[in-house]
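queue> pop job 88
queue> type: inverse folding (structure -> sequence)
queue> payload:
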């Protein structure tokens, strides 16, 4: 052309304009896709099946009255002790059984008022879409589905107003539970146990602390092929509101209907998460309740609720390692006994032989003592409970002198809770081989396909 521009060339301004338009179109298309996906996740997240709206909590006074009456902290302790079927007085067991029911939900207006007070605006201004019906109502708060303006499907946990007061009142009642235990087990000092639970439950009231816990796990496991932790949305969270990525998956009850192979896979993931978190992250969710997991047939599991997290010190994990090494790796019972005394479990002058000590504690290490493929059963889970809480029968005198140091309070809950869960799944595996992949002091090669995938993920982190 006479002006020197080639035919078909687009002037710079035109190209930029066209690029901007295309970018805008792409952004809108991407935005629509993201929103569509968020709405699909929103739709797939199951709503609560039954909520007693006639018992809705309408104000803080309702919360204190309802949760202060065998709810709040005592409900949490009841949930933590829900596996106790022997060894407790009948009156205590009956009281604990009453604590398993969910608390009634907040009314929509009350939930929205808490949200507005915490985040500065009502839900219709904070979210593109908001479900006023909670998908879960538990001991200290409830969870709602929502979609953010930028297309993120999220779960919004709102704390009951006044629940802190209810829990403070209930912590006094908690002492009664452990006073009953100390009657059965004279060697048990209930004060450290109560204090440990007080600290953990107080932390659980602080959603900012829970967000910190969840970020710790999410950062550590990001990209893991089987372990998923929902991301925290800090811009929509506070001390009494916690907003996270909305996750979907099958419930534990649904997973129980899967094939044994599928159940074995999800059990292996939970096992890897448990052992790996304790020994590699020095932390673990102290409430391994089946309701805190979402399952997938490929074996992947999404882990929820990080309010009750125990962070172990380097000294505590080193103590666990020494006990495992003595009992499992070296099978050195005299040295194992020394470690029990060091940990505060057994008095130094306990009048029992090493053989008696070995016979009692072997049960707790049985599934990792050999390289056999073993199946968790209901009988084994029940035996574990009896081994700890049945004050009569075999080893009764030994159990009377045992104590539970604070570092082991939550760990014992983890152990018994997971054994119960695995027993219901009928989980089968070579647990020793898997554990040796995760124990830092053994760090063996992968023993399962899942282990190979996890190893590839770990290696990718260092590339």
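queue> result:
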């Amino acid at each position: 052309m006479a002006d020197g521009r080639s035919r078909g060339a687009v002037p710079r301004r035109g190209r930029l304009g066209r690029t901007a338009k295309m970018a805008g179109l792409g952004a809108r298309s991407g935005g629509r896709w993201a929103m569509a996906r968020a709405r699909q996740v929103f739709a797939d997240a199951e709503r609560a099946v039954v909520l007693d709206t006639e018992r809705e909590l309408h104000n803080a006074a309702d919360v204190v009255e309802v949760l202060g009456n065998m709810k709040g902290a005592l409900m949490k302790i009841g949930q933590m002790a829900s596996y106790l079927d022997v060894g407790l007085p009948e009156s205590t067991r009956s009281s604990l059984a009453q604590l398993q029911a969910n608390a009634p939900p907040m009314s929509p207006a009350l939930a929205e008022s808490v949200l507005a007070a915490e985040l500065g605006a009502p839900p219709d201004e904070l979210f593109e879409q908001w479900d006023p019906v909670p998908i879960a109502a538990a001991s200290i708060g409830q969870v709602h589905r929502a979609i953010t303006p930028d297309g993120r499907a999220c779960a919004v946990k709102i704390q009951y107003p006044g629940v802190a007061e209810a829990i403070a009142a209930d912590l006094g009642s908690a002492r009664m539970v452990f006073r009953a235990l100390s009657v059965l087990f004279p060697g048990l000092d209930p004060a450290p146990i109560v204090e440990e639970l007080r600290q953990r439950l107080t932390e659980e009231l602080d959603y900012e602390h829970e967000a910190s816990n969840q970020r710790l796990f999410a950062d550590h496991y990001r990209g893991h092929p089987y372990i998923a932790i929902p991301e925290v949305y800090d811009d929509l969270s506070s001390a009494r509101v916690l907003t996270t990525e909305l996750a979907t998956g099958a419930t534990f009850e649904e997973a129980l209907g899967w094939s044994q192979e599928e159940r074995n896979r999800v059990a292996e993931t939970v096992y890897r998460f448990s052992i790996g978190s304790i020994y590699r992250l020095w932390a673990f969710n102290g409430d391994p309740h089946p309701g805190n997991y979402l399952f997938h047939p490929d074996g992947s599991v999404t882990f929820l609720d990080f309010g009750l997290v125990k962070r172990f010190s380097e000294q505590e994990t080193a103590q666990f390692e020494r006990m495992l090494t003595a009992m499992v790796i070296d099978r050195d019972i005299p040295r194992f006994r020394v470690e029990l005394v060091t940990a505060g479990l057994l008095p130094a002058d306990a009048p029992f032989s090493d053989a008696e000590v070995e016979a009692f504690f072997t049960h707790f290490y049985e599934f990792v003592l050999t390289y056999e493929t073993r199946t968790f059963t209901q009988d084994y889970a029940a035996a574990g409970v009896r081994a700890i809480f049945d004050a009569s029968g075999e080893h009764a005198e030994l159990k009377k002198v045992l104590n539970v140091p604070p570092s082991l309070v939550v760990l014992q809950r983890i152990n018994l809770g997971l054994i119960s869960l695995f027993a219901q799944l009928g989980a089968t595996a070579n647990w020793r081989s898997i554990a040796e992949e995760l124990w830092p002091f053994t760090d063996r090669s992968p023993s399962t396909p899942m282990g190979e995938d996890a190893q590839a993920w770990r290696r990718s982190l260092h590339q």
